[in-house]
Amino acid sequence: MLRQIAFLLCLVALAGCAARGTLAVMREPATGAVERQVFVGTTRERTPGGLFGNTRSETVGFGAFTVAVPPDRAPGEIAYPKGQPDPGRQFVMTSARLFDRAPTFTAALARDLAARPRGKRAAVIFVHGFNTNFTEGLYRSAQLAHDFGIEGVALHYSWPSAASPFGYAHDRDSALFARKGFTELLDAVIAARPDEVLIVAHSMGALLSMEALRQMALTSPGRVAREIDGLILLSPDIDVDVFRAQVRDIGAMPPNVVVFTSQRDRALLLSARLSGQRERLGNIQSVGELADLRVTVLDVTGFSTGMGHFTAGSSPDLIRLLRNVPTLQQSFDEGAAGRPGLLPGTVITVQNATGIILSPLTALAGQ
């Protein structure tokens, strides 16, 4: 117990040193910046300033925000200002629209999709994880869309995290609270008739996403596989047995399910210890633990540094590798199944599951 408390204090100290996401508004982006529009559904309560805070709302709010991705940054990097923002190095928001109800949101999304050429009409929904405020989730959605070259529409589901390293229990409850809101967002997105729907969920957001899909399946059996084309779980903070139960309840899963894992994920190590376990889904030791499930497990331990809890979206080397693999890029854009043999790594197939161990050395060898 003393080791767990010491580890928790270390995490809190690290979190305290980092600047938190604050929304900076600039009508004109910096020279060389790239603007990405992000459609948002949220179960956060509106703040007096008109945006969204950390408290829970039983009503889903909808909006569309344009984020300028700065030119002076490495892939995966998001810098937050502690004072006056520098739009050449830091993300800023350049425009915002709020929609009064779901049909208005769906109509705007449908217009955006229709304006795109065929093959670029996918809807890619990012669901953030633990200890995340509204700005951080919004900017992360824009960063992923930009760094991975996603050509479809970027969307974000922002659930009411307390945005505090001490708020783990609160966030677990909020993730469960936000399940219905996510199904409402999915309904609104599906009604806009995108060519593909892909969910990318991080950490505790993976638990929320699986619970929402379970809810959808129990209400309408078979709908998940019909409507959701791909599910990518990044460092999922889910008990392995709970994940199995969720998959059983969902039944027919999306055609493509990818789980990113790292055995150096310090946040999941702490989560497991606090739960009296040795691991979570995002840091399993072997693909064999999911052998009976039709999933692809990408082990990115070799790329993990620091906390190792968002390696897939923050490691410049891994982002370059994944972006340059056409099949995996297609899985982000279109929900299409990739062939593991095209990834430079060690491939392990155990019954229905496929594991791919990626490392910087195999990445260099594959270039």
Automatic annotation (TrEMBL):
GO terms for molecular function: hydrolase activity. Residues 1-18 form the signal peptide. Pfam families: DUF900 (PF05990). It comes from the Bacteria. Keywords: Hydrolase, Signal. This is Alpha/beta fold hydrolase. It comes from Rhodovulum strictum.
